Amino acid sequence: MTARTRSEERRAEIVRAALEVIAERGYRGASLAAVAERVGLTQQGLLHHFPTKEALLVAVLQERDRWDAMPAGRLRLDLLASLVEYNAMRPAIVQTFSALLGESVTEEHPARAYFTERYVGVRAGMAEVLRAEYGDRLPGGLTPERAAPLLVAILDGLQYQWLLDPESVDMASAFRDFLTLFGEHDDTDG
Questions:
Q1: Cα distances (Å, whole numbers) of residue 37 to 17, 18, 20, 137
Q2: CA distances (Å), 130 to each of 64, 118, 122, 172, 185, in order?
Q3: Which CATH code is given to the segment(s) 70-189?
Q4: pLDDT tens digits for 120-157?
Q5: What is the rounded CA–CA span in Å between residue 113 and residue 184?
Q6: How deeply is 171 buried, as exposed, middle or buried, from its count of CB atoms within 10 A (0-12, 13-18, 19+)?
Q7: Domain locations in the chain as residue ranges
Q8: Cα separation of 3 and 9, whole Å?
Q9: What is the pTM of this model?
Q10: How far, rounded to the nearest angstrom, does the alpha carbon of residue 149 sit from its chain's CA centroid?
Q11: Taking each helix axis from N to C terminus, what angle separates 77-88 and 91-103, rounded to the nearest 10 degrees?
Q12: CATH architecture of 1-53
């Protein structure tokens, strides 16, 4: 194993540990010392791989996005429903993302620019999905660009509701119910 491979594996281990610590404590409550301890490093050793807490945060967010990445042009509404089901199987990651998103709305948060840019891309992607399904007008008359922020809001809002009360909110079923508003049929009810 080369030194570069060992370094990449250590970075991946640190990112996973950071994700866990942020899920437990939030970004502001997470310390580099806690992450370093979790992976058996000193804080100085961790700083060798990630020079700042902000650099580690961006690596965590990028890793989370890689897990959810779909090939360009392959995303469809039915695949979005599958993504919601997948997210329901990994509450710690959804919790971390949601906590960071909530914290990032403050002016000085280091993830604010990341989330702002991410949502520009997500809205554009959702508009493409809607355009591929419905053309330039959805059944209710909205353009894909006008409906895209609403679709994103449903996805994020369901995550928050599910995190707060997973026994009462079935995120995947609720999203499939939402899709019926677009004229999509839920085949799970028979």
A1: 9, 11, 12, 53
A2: 24, 18, 12, 19, 16
A3: 1.10.357
A4: 999 999 999 999 989 999 988 999 999 999 999 999 99
A5: 35
A6: buried
A7: 1-53, 70-189
A8: 10
A9: 0.75
A10: 16
A11: 100
A12: Orthogonal Bundle (1.10)
